[in-house]
């Protein structure tokens, strides 16, 4: 700790110093991870709740250092957002996800209606060359815009409202599908959401997990399904973990979902087997 006057030490400094060192190490680690291509993409199937057919995959990043255990996004994404490194990480994820999808398509495992969903942070949304990057990555991999879904949170849209509005519209004009992630956890007004060119709402896992066997206490889920229907949007329920969740969601006519009940996120190598087993091909 640094002296602050006559032999006095500010009590909080050692802790702050330790935190600063940790953050610096993490930033260095993330930069190296980018250079060494240590970010790997896992995929979680999105299924049709009636047929259990896999209709798409969500790309979820993990950090794999050689010989270490996997690091999950909650432990580095917030910091990557703070430092801006998320832009490059997100770019690698998008590249990898598109390259993988192109391969599965070439192998005849999926058709052109199959989509890959990629999470986009607000930092990425603010990149002036975002549209160009997406365009060239899709082109390099021989994919069309329709095959990509971008998942955005309410806050990443609302925080940059004026700018993002134009970006979203352009994406939509190119037929990229936009989903609102963690729907219901933000504070956006419905009248604003209504104006956005979004085609899908993802019901946050917290609402799905509070579903009970009692049809009178389904919480906010029926409300979200009503909103989506009124706005003519698709719905994907996240975090489906039990048969009871599935049953209730089916009762409510929720069409799509994802969760541990169906599939955990898996590395790319494991995807072809899943697709074959699910009867996609
Ligand atoms: P998310 O986009 O809401 O992703 C869903 C999270 O729920 C994933 O956690 C997934 O593994 C987990 N999950 C799926 N099914 C279930 C279930 O049935 N039960 C439970 N308890 N969890 C389930 P994960 O992979 O750890 O990702 C956490 C968050 O990190 C994501 O939340 C997303 O916000 C962020 N993230 C992941 N990959 C990326 C990325 O490439 N870019 C950006 N910007 N953010 C990412
Ligand atoms: Ca997501
Ligand atoms: Ca989510
Ligand atoms: Ca989330």
Automatic annotation (TrEMBL):
Q: Which domain of life is it from?
A: Bacteria
Q: Where is the EAL domain?
A: 23-279
Name recorded for this polypeptide: histidine kinase
> What fragment of the full-length protein is this?
320 to 600 of 608
């Amino acid at each position: 700790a640094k002296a602050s006057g006559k032999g006095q030490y500010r009590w909080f400094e050692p802790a702050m110093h330790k935190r600063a060192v940790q953050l610096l190490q993490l930033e260095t680690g993330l930069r190296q991870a980018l250079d060494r291509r240590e970010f790997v993409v896992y995929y979680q199937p999105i299924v049709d709740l009636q047929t259990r057919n896999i209709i798409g995959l969500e790309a979820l990043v993990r950090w794999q250092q050689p010989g270490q255990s996997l690091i999950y996004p909650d432990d580095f994404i917030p910091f990557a957002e703070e430092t801006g490194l998320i832009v490059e990480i997100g770019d690698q994820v998008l590249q990898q996800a598109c390259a993988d999808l192109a391969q599965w398509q070439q192998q005849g495992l999926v058709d052109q209606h199959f989509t890959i969903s990629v999470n986009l942070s607000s930092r990425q949304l603010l990149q002036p060359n975002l549209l160009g990057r997406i365009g060239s990555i899709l082109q390099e991999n021989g994919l069309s815009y329709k095959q990509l879904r971008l998942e955005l949170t309410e806050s990443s849209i609302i925080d940059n409202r004026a700018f993002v509005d134009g970006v979203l519209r352009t994406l939509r004009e190119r037929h990229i599908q936009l989903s609102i992630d963690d729907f219901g956890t933000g504070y956006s007004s419905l009248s604003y959401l209504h104006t956005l060119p979004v085609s899908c709402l993802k019901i946050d896992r917290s609402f799905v997990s509070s579903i009970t066997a009692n049809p009178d206490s389904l919480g906010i889920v029926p409300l979200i399904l009503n909103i989506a229907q009124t706005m003519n949007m698709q719905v994907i329920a996240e975090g489906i973990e039990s048969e009871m969740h599935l049953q209730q969601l089916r009762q409510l006519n929720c069409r799509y979902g994802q969760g541990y009940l169906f599939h955990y996120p898996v590395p790319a190598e494991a995807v072809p087997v899943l697709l074959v087993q699910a009867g996609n091909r």
